[in-house]
Amino acid sequence: MEENFNTVENMDIDIEKEGSTFTIPFLNKSIKIPFTKKTLIIVGSGLLFIIILIIIIASLAHGKKNNKKEEKKNNNYQCIIDNEDNCLTCIKNKCGSCNFKYILTNDGECVPDFSLRANYISYNDNEYVELLNYTFSDYITELIIDKEKISPSSNYMFPKSGEHTIYMTINTEKLSSLDKMFYQMRKLKSIYFSKKFNTKNITSMERMFVSCSQLTSVNISNFNTANVKSFNYLFYYASNLETVILPKSKASKLETVSFMFDGCFLLRSIDFSNFIVNSPYLTSLHGTFNGCHLLENINMSNFNTEGVTDMGELFEDCHSLTSIDLTKFKTTKLQYMNKMFYRCKKMEKIDLSHFNTENVVKMEYLFYGCSMLGSVELSSFNTKNLQTMDSMFNGCYSLSSIDLSGFNTEKVTNMMEIFAFCSNLLYLDISHFSDNANKYYDFFTTLPNDGTIKLNHKIYEKIKGNIPSSWKITYID
């Protein structure tokens, strides 16, 4: 019996006649107990219980910190993350070799976060296409297509078929432009920009997502836009885009956002509340929301428009927009308002009474096709430099009254079809219109039988063929 006990490891056993002394290492204490097999079992069980108890206590203590941690899973990956989406632990056999630090995407996927700038792209195409415009080829330091690492070169190609997940490392610190970065990637389904994607030196993002027609959401909230001068065509014809999360930053050097969302047919709302466009250099809003057919809500109160000269086509074909608050717009330098509200079919009321229009030269098609427009306030308009007004109210079926008594039209060269298809117009004041030649062609069409018009005799002679005989005419001269 004595020889058997001397073979026990990790315990200091001293056999005596009356009993045995056990030294417990982590308690640093000797205990003298009677020596029997039963005693040995009891002591062993006690030690095991103490070890289990310690493990449970440690686990409970660790669990209290888990209010900042959660476990995210999907079919391919599993990782433990903190509340800032930094991957703390990557579980092997769930995400490949786990050779990288991992981060969590917006869709709950655990993806590699490379040492520089990481992008996550899901792509599906049937032909060979370039990964990126050659502009960026020298800045891609690592490329992985589905878990297969490919050596960086000047010409990256996708496999011919199937859906692929691409992980890119791009060093953007040396870049000044992201123009055409994902240009015409028509099969691009999703993209994730890590918090390390550094845009502090970027001055232009023109055409960055042009024709990415399968993208449904883009989150660029981490972008630093302090030095960006142009967002022209940024999401141009990203035709399935439903959600855009804009940068949480200021754009104090921005010069133009022309056609930024043009062709984003499915966008319903655009939130500029965290994206402060406070640039004094902003000159163009031309076509910014053109073709946003489902756009219902937009807040542009954060825009500094003091230097803007062009608002042409700004809300063209925003078919679902019912109202827009532009009361904070400053328009002292504005020159172009052509097609600004073109075919805003559900717009019921527009208040432009605060607009300064003394430098505006173009207003053609301004309210064309605004079929539900019931009233429009233009009393403050100064039109001394205005040159074009053709089809300005064409198709405004619901307008019953239009007062343009303050309009100066001496420089206007074209008024063709200005009130065409205003089929419910009952009152019109054009008393101060000038009689310059060759600009009153097809002035009216489809007027109602009863109505009143206020004008001078010279204008009457030019348009009398369009005025129903039943209308009351009031001359001012």
Give a written overview of the molecule.
The protein is mainly beta. The chain has a domain at 2-66. It contains 3 helices and 25 strands. The chain has helices at residues 2-5, 37-63, 457-463; strands at 12-15, 20-24, 29-33, 69-73, 78-82, 87-90, 102-104, 110-112, 118-124, 140-145, 148-150, 163-170, 188-193, 217-219, 243-245, 269-270, 297-298, 349-351, 375-377, 401-403, 419-420, 427-429, 444-445, 452-455, 472-475. A 5-stranded antiparallel sheet has the order 11-10-12-9-13, with no helix packed on it. Strands 20-22-24-25 form a 4-stranded parallel sheet. Strands 1-2-3 form a 3-stranded antiparallel sheet, with no helix packed on it. Residues 1-19, 67-78, 80-100, 113-120, 123-134 and 154-158 have low confidence and may be disordered.
